[in-house]
Structures are given as structure tokens and as C-alpha cells.
Amino acid sequence: CGACVAACPNGSAMLFTAAKVSHLAKLPQGKVEAAKRIINMVEAMDRQGFGNCGNHYECQAVCPKGIHVKNIAKMNREYLKALFKSIK
């Protein structure tokens, strides 16, 4: 919905993007393109000029779905793993 982005002092869309990455990772189909998808999603977020997470947790506080910021850490881990895979 974007409430997290509006509440964030940095205008970060990391919780929003991380929630979508986590959601798509749970689906059985799409495992083949999972690494490419996360790279594309994070790079699109960066191109749009959203800020980075500053650990204010305002996003989590206003999220009507109760999405936890631990999803951002998961997204960062998956992004780094995907980058390393793409280098090989």
C-alpha cells in the first residue's frame, strides 16, 4: 500500500520491496528466476531514488499488515547471494 514509504524518514521502499520478495519466494513456481528477480527488484527500487533503511522502524509501526523489518534483512541476504551467483 506504500504506508511504509510515506512513514519512513528516508523515503525507503525497502520494507515494501522486501515483503514482495518474501512473498514471491514462498511460491513454488518461479524458483528458477528467483535470483534474477531479486536483482531486478532491488535495482528498480534504487533507480527510482528511494532511500535506504535507516533502522527507524517507522515502516513496521505503520504497516497495516504487520510486516516485520526482518524481511529487509532477508531481502539483503538474498540479494547478495544472487549477486554472487551472477558473477560466476
Ordered list of secondary-structure elements with their pairings:
Layout: H1 3-7, H2 14-25, H3 34-47, H4 58-62, H5 70-87
How does this model look, in words?
It is a single chain. By secondary structure, the protein is mainly α. Helix content is 61%, strand content 0%. It is built from 5 helices and no strands. The chain has helices spanning 3-7, 14-25, 34-47, 58-62, 70-87. Helix 2 packs antiparallel against helix 3 and helix 2 (14-25) crosses helix 5 (70-87). The radius of gyration is 13 Å and the shape is globular. The mean pLDDT is 90.
Task: Summarize the structure in short.
With 88 residues, this protein is mostly helical. It has 5 helices and no strands.
Count of runs of 4 or more consecutive helical residues? 5
Q: Catalogue the unreliable spans.
A: none
Principal-axes shape call: globular
State the separation between the terminal residues, measured CA to CA: 36 Å
